[in-house]
Structures are given as structure tokens and as C-alpha cells.
Amino acid sequence: MPDLALVGAVERMRWRRWIAGVACWVCAALWGVAGAQAQSVQAPQASALPPMSVVTPARDVAQWIERMHQAPRKRSYVGTFVVLSSSGAMFSSRIWNACDGKQQLERVDGLSGTPRKVFRRNDEVRTFLPEERTVRTERGDARGLFPQLPSVQGTSLARHYEAQVLGQERVAGLDADVVWFKPLDPLRFGYRIWSERESGLVVKMQTLAADGRVLEQAAFSELDLNAAVSMDKLARMMDDVSGYKVIAPAAAKTTALEEGWRLKQPVAGFVPQSCHRRLAAAGASEASPVLQCLYSDGLATVSLFIEPFDLKRHGAQGQLASVGATQMLGQRMASDAWVTAVGEVPMQTLRLFVGALERVR
């Protein structure tokens, strides 16, 4: 079985990819699936999209991503969205987003699965679990939540993706540009993204295998871009922890090299984004501290979780799992450490990461 102490860390990684309230449920399913392999995947057909008379401005890959990245920081909204995995799992949540140009505050309520409310104020995240009467608070990157489109330095999206405008469609009653981010090598999946024409807000996103098969889809089923969302009201709700036990795991910022690890050679297009040693919270029953290093190419993300090998928790064999676009590879290292690679990439990409990882001290 996978190390249960990693589940929370994996949830935090998945938060970076989607809304945390949805991501944690998908991750829980991920750890229960074994032996599944990522399958190779051709392009989605533009003819499937009915053309509209509106002309879409010409933009390159970086310009499209930057527009989508900035949209949640400039517009308040309320909406309901649904996440559907190719495995058949489906989850829905309600989201409130407030911003004033200086800070961003979001609330996400799970409408299915385990009841939870998640708040994020810039880089502070609080997850309320009403049934357990606990709230988990931690720090994270201050990025838009639907979906996370990272602002990555040191990599060139144009070297690894090509942006092709497929047309326009309506999503949740709003006109949206449809852009296919076509991967230029087999190390990453493709993405078909619907962004609202006026604001650039992502209203729908599909992760695609090479043959156009949809691995995962996340979309608003209802969205109000003119909703009056009170930042003060959301802030009061986020700060009201009365009656809850507060758990605050410590995360020490570090680098892989400082911890004695490095990649012998980089995986094409992926650059380091962050690295933290996650420590057990006071009163929490977690195992040994886990080193989490995050890499991104500007669209896809991969996390490496490194910890001491434990035969009882990890087992003698390696571990493979897949849920939708998310793949997991667990493997024992020669240095008697255990690495778990998780990412929305083909399995061969995770194998390259694990194969390049080495202990330097």
C-alpha cells in the first residue's frame, strides 16, 4: 500500500492543479488504484466545434496562458463546476472568487463526497472539515485555482506546445474561445481550454491523450461573472475557526540539492518550481518528514515526494496507479529512500524523473 502520510501531501499538490475540494477526492481514489498504465494518445478535430462569426485575436502560447492566468485575479464571480475523470468519477463544487486588484480570496464548497469548505486568501489556505471539526491551515503559491496555470520562469512553452484556435463555443451561457495546446513531444498531454472571450477566465478544460481521448474534464456548469462577492464576508468566514481544532503542518522551504538530491539530467521542458520539507504538525499522527519538489513546464506539473524507505508502508514492489490524467509511480531508490512521482503527464515522463533522480550526499 502507498504511504498514507503522503496522501495529504499529494492532496496539496493536486490543489495546484484544480480546486482543492475536488482534488483531494480524486487523489483518494488514486491511491486505491494499482497497476493501471498511462496510454498513448491524435489531435482533437476542429470540425467538432461549430464556427462562430467572431474573430479571435492571434496569440501565441505564452500570451494565451498569461491571459488565462491573470483572469481570476481581476474578476469576481460565483459558479458551480463539475470535474469528470475518464475513470467515471464525477465531483461538483461551488466556488466564490473575490478580488480587489491587490488580493484574491476564494471559497470552495464541496457538493459531493466528504463535506468540506476550502478558503484561500492569496497564499494562505484553510480547509474546514465539519464532520471532524478540524481545520487545516497552510501556505501555498498564490495562483488562480481554476485551473492552476503556473507562471513558470526558465522554460519556453512554445518549444513544447503549439496553440491552435479551434473556434468558439458557449459554456455555462458564456461565449468562449476554444484553444488546443498541442504537445510537440510524447512527454506531456494536450489541453483543450475554453476561455471566456471578454475576461479570459477558463470556464472549461480537457486534458487530452494523443488520440484526442479526454482523460479529465473540469467545467463550470453555471457561472455568474457579475456576482457581487464580498471579500470582507469571505474573510470573516475564513477566520472564524471557533469550535474547530486547528492543524498547521510546518513546511520548511528548501531545494533538492540542499537536501542531498538532484536530477542527473533535466526532463525536457520541466523546471523546478518549489521544494519543501513537510514536517508533522503538532498533535498530528504523520510519519517521517517528506521532501516534496515540484516541477512544471508551464501547463503540466510533476511532484517528487522523497522519504525514508519503510518496508511495511511501501512494500517490496514498486507502485503504479492512474486516475484520469494523473499518474503515480512509487519506487525504492538505491540509497534506501522511497520516491513517489505524481503528475498529470504520461507514465514515461514520471519514469524519466525517477530514473534521473540521484543521491549526492
From TrEMBL:
UniProt xrefs under InterPro entries: MucB/RseB_C (IPR033436), MucB/RseB_C_sf (IPR038484), MucB/RseB_N (IPR033434), MucB_RseB (IPR005588)
Gene Ontology MF, one: antisigma factor binding
GO biological process per UniProt: regulation of polysaccharide biosynthetic process
Signal peptide (residue range): none
Subcellular location, principal: periplasm
Limits of the MucB/RseB C-terminal domain: 258-355
MucB/RseB N-terminal domain residues: 61-238
UniProt keywords, alphabetically: Periplasm, Signal
GO terms for cellular component: outer membrane-bounded periplasmic space
Places the protein is found: Periplasm
Keyword flag Lipoprotein: no
Family the entry assigns: Belongs to the RseB family.
Record-given protein name: Sigma-E factor negative regulatory protein RseB
